[in-house]
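can u pls check wat happens w/ IPE
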Amino acid sequence: MKNEKPIPQHVAIIMDGNGRWAKQRGKERSEGHIAGVESIRATLRAAQKHGVKYVTFYAFSTENWGRPTAEVDALMELMCYSVINETPELIKQGVRVRTIGDRSRFSEKVQQHLAKIEQETAEGQTLTMILALNYSSRDELRRSFRQLAEAVKQGEIQPEEINEQRISAMLDTAAYPDPDLVIRTSGEQRLSNFLLWQSAYAEFYFPEVHWPDFNEEEFERALEVYAGRDRRFGLVK
Ligand code: IPE
Ligand code: IPE
Ligand code: MG
């Protein structure tokens, strides 16, 4: 019999618990972040295997700037260098790398690296990996509302022309479908300012494992849970 299991087109992940994972092992928090890179690789492998087309990783929130400078610096370094080192492999696998969030706050060097990686992976056809960097939903909405207000002020659009499509089209995620499934690891059950508008009809899944312990098997478990959900979108079946 044909396997009819619904597969999410877009999975968005709040990678949480790196610090606790490290602490439990008597390590520095940054070691948790380093260990978490392997979980990203495993997730991409599993996503490709099952035909998931978009995976968004919440890597750095606008609120995360408030962490100790050493941790912020370590995260920046890790983000930059792991994506750079990974680029040849990502190209080979057909992964296209994109980002959401306000990149202007990053150093010139980081911004250049990110632009280069996007450009080098632009032809990727199998999967789009979206990194949420200096991202938060309220910040994204704030930026978009300003842009919208400016367009109205310039007479480019009329207030009555503002509809949901136009709002979606102004967001950083304009080019991607809304997430079907949002996963947050480490047992925390909150969004922490992630994709508020976009996840209006997403399914949520909160595995207990910390992010460095998330792997292909955990991703497949998430797909199983998703397949068992009844998405009604406000309608009657
Ligand atoms: C997630 O792990 C990584 C980022 C937020 C960048 P945390 O660093 O939040 O780890 P915990 O939640 O403190 O354990
Ligand atoms: C959310 O995790 C942000 C990222 C995963 C990048 P946090 O650990 O920063 O969120 P809170 O503080 O638990 O809400
Ligand atoms: Mg956390």
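The domain at 10-136+178-227 is CATH 3.40.1180.10 (Undecaprenyl pyrophosphate synthetase).
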